[in-house]
């Protein structure tokens, strides 16, 4: 055995002191080819300092061997020595056999530094030189996938598949394409790929995308089957709970939906979306105090979530808890954090608590947004009528009848106001 082989054997056995001794002997005695293999092995095993020393030893002997520079640059990047890595890579000329490899290494380096435009340019340069090189196609596909530029990613994944690759670098390409289509919102194409994936390649992430895609295609029973299976194997996969619960809602399995949202909150107690969904289902089940609890909990986590605010406000209006509704919405009105529905809800509760003058301000503020909403216009008509503001009631009632010409009660009331 060479000293390099003895060192690797010692590392395999956890004999670090022996490995250290064999490493020194290897640098002094082993052939250059053996040292090159050793450097690659050490890099793969994560012994970066030793890999670096080995590459540097070889570069001392072969200062013009560019393939050694790319190997060393890989190690330096992993060690965080970015400037040093760039220094070696920049010396590789475009005419060098190692130039293509240097472009790929620089692309990785720039991604590490979040210099994405520079990384993309190096990959495209490499593609121009070798458009049929699979590792370059894969690099471009993964780059665009991670940048969420899915249309471009799909193009390069498909090129790899057309070359006969179903997997590359232990990545299932069909899965990648299916997920990319799903993430891009092209669910019809996504499902065609996701359903092809062999069960052995159905990772939790891919299973989630499959269930999510079924949900988006309104195939709720299939979504339930896939997402149930996902949670049964990985109950910490928090993203699955909202979609599984909503699929239960869509199939009118409300008790199962509520249990699912509650299970999701046990996994992710800071997910305001789950609190909102749980509250909405609790209302459907007639469990108003529970719904109030969930909406309030969600707002403690995210007070600026206007959907949660309106869900709780609508609940207060429904159960005639007008004081609580006014207290809830007062902060948002004062801070001008306004969804038009807030004006309407405040107006309703102020009317119910006989704060007529203030209520009228909010009715009129809401009217700007709801002139074509028949429900709103009917309520506004009744507000004016009940408070003896006949002129305003007549104007609003006339506009309402244009929206609802079959409402005989309001037609009669408007006629009375007109003096007919």
UniProtKB/TrEMBL annotation:
SUPFAM superfamilies: TPR-like. Residues 173-234 form the Tetratricopeptide repeat protein 21A/21B fourth ARM domain. It comes from the Bacteria. Pfam families: ARM_TT21_4th, TPR_16, TPR_8. TPR repeats lie at residues 204-237, 238-271, 272-305. InterPro entries: ARM_TT21_4th (IPR056836), TPR-like_helical_dom_sf (IPR011990), TPR_rpt (IPR019734). Keywords: Repeat, TPR repeat. This is Tetratricopeptide repeat protein. It comes from Periweissella beninensis.
């Amino acid at each position: 055995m060479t000293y390099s082989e003895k060192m690797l054997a010692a590392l395999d056995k956890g004999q670090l002191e022996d490995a250290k001794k064999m490493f020194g002997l290897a640098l002094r005695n082993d052939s250059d080819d053996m040292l090159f293999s050793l450097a690659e092995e050490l890099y793969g095993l994560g012994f970066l300092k030793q890999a670096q020393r080995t590459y540097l030893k070889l570069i001392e002997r072969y200062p013009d061997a560019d393939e050694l520079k790319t190997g060393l640059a890989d190690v330096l990047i992993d060690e965080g020595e970015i400037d040093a890595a760039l220094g070696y890579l920049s010396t590789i000329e475009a005419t060098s056999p190692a130039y293509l490899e240097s472009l790929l290494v620089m692309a990785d380096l720039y991604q590490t530094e979040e210099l994405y435009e520079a990384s993309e340019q190096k990959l495209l340069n490499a593609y121009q030189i070798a458009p049929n090189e699979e590792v370059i196609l894969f690099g471009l596909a993964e780059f665009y996938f991670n940048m969420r530029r899915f249309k471009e990613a799909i193009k390069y994944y498909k090129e790899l598949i057309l070359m006969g690759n179903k997997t590359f670098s232990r990545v299932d390409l069909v899965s990648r394409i299916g997920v990319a289509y799903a993430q891009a919102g092209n669910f019809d194409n996504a499902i065609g790929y996701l359903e092809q994936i062999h069960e052995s390649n159905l990772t939790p992430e891919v299973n989630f995308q499959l269930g999510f895609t079924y949900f988006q295609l309104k195939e709720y029973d299939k979504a339930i089957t896939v997402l149930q299976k996902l949670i049964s194997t990985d109950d910490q996969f928090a993203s699955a709970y909202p979609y599984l619960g909503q699929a239960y809602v869509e199939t009118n399995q409300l008790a199962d939906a509520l249990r699912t949202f509650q299970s999701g909150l046990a996994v992710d107690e800071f997910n305001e979306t789950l609190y909102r969904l749980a509250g909405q289902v609790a209302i459907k089940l007639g469990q108003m105090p529970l719904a109030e609890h969930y909406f309030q909990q969600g707002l403690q986590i995210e007070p600026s979530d206007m959907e949660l605010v309106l869900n709780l406000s609508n609940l207060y209006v429904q159960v005639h808890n007008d004081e609580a509704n006014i207290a809830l919405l007062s902060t948002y009105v004062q801070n001008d954090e306004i969804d038009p529905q807030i004006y309407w809800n405040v107006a309703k509760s102020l009317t119910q608590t006989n704060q007529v003058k203030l209520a009228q301000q909010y009715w009129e503020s809401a009217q700007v947004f709801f002139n074509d909403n028949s429900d709103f216009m009917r309520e506004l008509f009744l507000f004016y009528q009940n408070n003896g503001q006949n002129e305003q009631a007549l104007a609003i009632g006339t506009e309402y009848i244009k929206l609802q010409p079959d409402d005989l009660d309001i037609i009669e009331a408007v006629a009375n106001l007109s003096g007919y």
